[in-house]
Amino acid sequence: MAGASEDEVREFAAGLRSLLDWLQLSGPAAGNEVVALVQGTLGPAGLGQSVVARELPAFEHVNLQTALDAWSAAPGRSVEVRGVVLPPHYVGIDLQQLMTGEALPPVRLSAPAVVDLPNGPGSTLACLRLALLLVTDDDGRYVLLVQEAGEHRPTMSVEVAGLPVQRAQAVLAELDRLRRELNVYRGRLVEVTPTPSGQVALTFLDPPDLTRDDVVLPAAVLDRVERHALGVAGHRAGLRAAGQHLKRGLLLYGPPGTGKTHTVRYLLGRMGDYTRLLLTGRSLGVVGSVTELARELQPAVVVLEDVDLVAADRSFGPGGSPVLFDLLDAMDGAAPDADLLFVLTTNRADLLEPALAARPGRVDVAVQVDLPDAAARRRLLLLYGRAVPLRLTDDDVTRAVDRSEGVTASFLKELLRRAVLEALHEQDPVVAVTAGHLDRALDDLLDSTQQVTRTLLGVGAEGAVTDGDGAWPGPAPVQYGGGYRPFRAR
Ligand SMILES: Nc1ncnc2c1ncn2[C@@H]1O[C@H](COP(=O)(O)OP(=O)(O)OP(=O)(O)O)[C@@H](O)[C@H]1O
Ligand SMILES: [Mg+2]
C-alpha cells in the first residue's frame, strides 16, 4: 500500500477482518438447513467420526438402489430419506462438507429426486440421485449420502458418517454383499457400451429367439460350437472336482455374412441361466472391467464381436500395446475355475493370428464358419422362404442353388426378399413367388456390372476382391479354407 499511513493500513486490516467474520456468519453455510439436519442427526459424538466413502461405477447405480431398498427394510432399522438439491454446474458434494459447513455450495433440502433406471428387460427402478439417508439401527444414529455419477463425476458414491470407521466399513460391505446377491444384471443379456468419460454403460437386451433349425451350418460345426459353449453346464462340479478349469474361449471365424453373429445369437438364446455380456467395436476397449463383472456374475459369457476391429488399435499411455492384447490379457486374468465363456468372432482371422500365437491358451476352440455348400444353400432358401408363398419345383430350387454357388448365407436371405419384391411388381399382396421371380432376382443380384452390390452382398468372398479396373476394391484379401490355418499348432 504505497503512500498509506500505518494507521490507515491498520484500519483497512480491521475492516477486512470484520468483513470476513461477517461472511463466515452469514455466508451460505450459516443456518444451512442441510448442514443443520446432518449436524442435528449426528450430534457431537457422530460429528467426531470419520467419513467413509465408496466409489462405484455408474452402472452400479441401479444395483446400489436395489441393495439400499433391501437394507433399509431389514428388521430393527429405520431409514428416513431426504433429497438434497445442488444447483447446476456444481460437480458434487461430500458428507464432510455437510457435517462441517466448510466450502459449502448453496445446497438445500427437497423431496428426493430419482432417476428411473432399467432393472430388467421390461422394468425400471426409481433410483436416488442425491440424497441423505438418516438411519437408526443397532449401531445407533448415522447418515448415508448417495450421489449419482454425472458429466464431470465419472463414478457414483455412497458415504457413511457418524460411525466408527470399522462399523462404517461393515455397512458398506453389507451393501456390497446385497449388490452382488441381488445384482439386476445376473442371468441377463446385456450390451456393454463405452460412455464418453471412459466408463461403461449396460443396456438390457431381449434374448434372441432362434432355434437350432434357424442356424444353417454343417452339423459337425454346430455340434462343436454347442459342445464347447453349453457342454460344461452339466459337468461343472465334476470338472472342478477333477481340478479342471471351466473358463473357455471359442473363436468363430469366416467370411462376412456366413452366420457368425447369427450363431452367437442362437447360443445366447440357449444360455438362459448365464449372464451374457455383449461387446462390439469401441466397447472392446473396456473388456477389463467387463471381465471382472462377468466373474462376479458367473456363470457368464462374454461375447467379443468383430475382434479384428481392435487388432491394430493401440491403447493410450506408455507402451501402447494393442487393445487386442489387453483383451487377451483380460481373458487370461479371469479366474480359471469361474464358469466363463469368451466367444470371439472375426472375419479377419489373419489379423488375429499373430496376437493369438503370442498369447496362447486364451482360445481353446476355433471354428471356421464357411460359405454355405449346395445342401446348406438349399436349406437356407427354404428357411428364409418359410413365410413366403413359394411356388417352386424341386428343379427350380436346384437351379437357384446351382446358380448361387459361392454366395454367403445372408445373400440367400436377401435373394428371397428380392424375389418377393419381383412378385410384388405383378401382384400386391403376393400370391405366389415363382421360379421366374427367383431367376430375375438372381439375375439382378449376380449382375456382373453391379460389382459393388455383389461385394456388399458377399458373392464369393475371394472372387469379390477383384483386380479389374474400376472394380470395387473390397476389403483386403482374406484367405479362408484351402489349407489356411488360422492357428499354429502348439
Ligand atoms: N448360417 C446361417 N444360417 C442361417 N441364417 C444365416 C446364416 N448366416 C447368415 N444368416 C443370415 O444372415 C444374417 C447376417 O449374418 P451374420 O450377421 O451372422 O454374419 P456374420 O458372419 O456375423 O458376418 P460379419 O463377419 O460381417 O459380422 C443373419 O442375421 C442371418 O439372418
Ligand atoms: Mg458378425
From TrEMBL:
<dbReference type="InterPro" id="IPR050168">
    <property type="entry name" value="AAA_ATPase_domain"/>
</dbReference>
<protein>
    <submittedName>
        <fullName>AAA family ATPase</fullName>
    </submittedName>
</protein>
<feature type="domain" description="AAA+ ATPase">
    <location>
        <begin position="246"/>
        <end position="373"/>
    </location>
</feature>
<dbReference type="InterPro" id="IPR027417">
    <property type="entry name" value="P-loop_NTPase"/>
</dbReference>
<dbReference type="InterPro" id="IPR003593">
    <property type="entry name" value="AAA+_ATPase"/>
</dbReference>
<dbReference type="Pfam" id="PF00004">
    <property type="entry name" value="AAA"/>
</dbReference>
<dbReference type="InterPro" id="IPR003959">
    <property type="entry name" value="ATPase_AAA_core"/>
</dbReference>
